[in-house]
Design a protein that fits this description.
- The protein has eleven helices and twelve strands.
- The chain has an eight-stranded mixed β-sheet with strand order 6-7-8-3-9-10-12-11, with helices on both faces. Strands 2-1-4-5 form a four-stranded antiparallel β-sheet.
- It starts with a strand and ends in a 13-residue tail after the last strand.
- The radius of gyration is 21 Å and the shape is globular.
- Helix 4 packs across helix 5, helix 4 runs parallel beside helix 6 and helix 5 crosses helix 6.
- A hairpin with a 2-residue loop joins strand 11 and strand 12.
- The protein is α/β, with parallel strands linked by helices.
- The structure holds adenosine-5'-diphosphate and magnesium ion (MG).
Length: 334
């Protein structure tokens, strides 16, 4: 079956203008933030793909390129087989209707000057529902669905708790009836008890509305329960992609293996010893040569790790890893 969304060798670099002084004195040119590098990934219809990586690894950028809030620097984004990488104007707006995003911070993503009626009403309008009575009915129905009292319809976001606001973000996304939702760390700002409720709600809604999720998180613990597959990202590159159970039981990439034991009470992981990573993530302004992870990798095997970026090795059904430990020293295009 055709994937709902595919990234094909997607790269996103942000120009970072150097200061005028730097330009004059040192003749320095604008530098590039290598936010996303050569990512190839598919989301199948009705699945949840967990995208995990430390802060700054390019997860949000990839998510935004996927729903075309950003244009890729190179590579392609296909939605239902159609190249949307360079779509503009009316075509882009109609594609966007199929895709919604839920952000980490429900405080800043909801307009504080608008009521829930106005916020969700605007989303319903996108779907062509302009009649105010009909809007009210739909909004009340959605509020009930996410276990919020219907009197919230005339509340402002600041009158609600973090968890309640996130439920509003969810119904605003649902109101458009999208096929794809990018949930960008939707529970990271919430209390642990509320996190579980929101995740359960998202799982239920996925079935009811036949949704596909790109579920972004900075640790593997959050995505374990909700994801069908997990992709691990480091410094803008994918390190490993596998079905969830497989990834936790048989993690292959040294980076994944380092991330996993940090999860308390997750006994089923296939990593027994604790791997402690040295140093910090290098700057995406100046990523290392070769494998991006080699400067911190506890299992580096030699010069090739410093000189070439590892290509993908298929290590099982639906399980691929970008690491020289596992495979042919196939070079990636630089
Ligand atoms: P994550 O979501 O994994 O924390 P991001 O995708 O937000 O990572 O960011 C990846 C890198 O790209 C970071 O170094 C970030 O500072 C940089 N970045 C993100 N957006 C921009 C932008 N609009 N301009 C310049 N740099 C950006
Ligand atoms: Mg982010």
């Amino acid at each position: 079956m055709m994937p709902l969304l595919s990234f094909e060798n997607v790269t996103k670099h942000f120009p970072l203008p150097s200061s005028l002084l730097g330009r004059v004195l040192a003749g320095r040119r604008d530098r590039l933030v290598h936010a996303v590098n050569d990512v190839t990934l598919e989301l199948n219809e009705n699945e949840t793909l967990g995208l995990v990586g430390e802060s700054g690894s390019g997860k949000s950028t990839l998510g935004r390129v996927g729903i075309r809030l950003l244009k890729p620097t190179s590579g392609k984004v296909l939605f239902q087989g159609e190249d949307i990488s360079t779509a503009e104007g009316r075509r882009l707006r109609s594609i966007r209707r199929e895709m919604q995003v839920i952000f980490q911070n429900p405080y800043s993503s909801l307009n504080p000057r608008k009521t829930i009626r106005q916020i969700v009403g605007a989303a319903l309008k996108v779907r062509g529902i302009r009649d105010l009575k009909q809007q009210e009915e739909e909004i009340c129905q959605l509020l009930r669905r996410v276990s919020l009292p219907v009197r919230f319809i005339d509340a402002y976001p600041h009158q609600l708790s973090g968890g309640q606001r996130q439920r509003i973000s969810i119904i605003r996304a649902l109101a458009v009836r999208p096929k794809l939702i990018v949930a960008d760390e939707p529970v990271s700002a919430l209390d642990v008890s509320v996190q579980a409720q929101i995740i359960r709600l998202l799982e239920e809604l996925k079935k009811e509305f036949r949704l596909t999720y790109l579920f972004i998180a900075h640790d593997l613990r959050v995505v374990y329960h909700i994801s069908d597959r997990v992709a691990v990202m480091y410094l803008g590159r994918l390190a490993e992609v596998a079905e969830t159970e497989e990834l936790y039981k048989a993690p292959m990439h040294p980076y994944t293996r380092a991330l996993l034991p940090a999860i308390p009470k997750l006994e089923r992981t296939g990593v027994k010893e604790r791997v402690v990573l040295k140093g910090t993530v290098p700057s995406p302004l100046d990523p290392p040569q070769g494998c991006f992870f080699h400067t911190r990798c506890p299992e580096k095997i030699g010069l090739q790790c410093e000189q070439a970026a590892p290509g993908w090795t298929q290590v099982g059904a639906g399980h691929r890893v970008a690491c020289f430990r596992y495979g042919p020293t196939m070079m990636k295009d630089a």
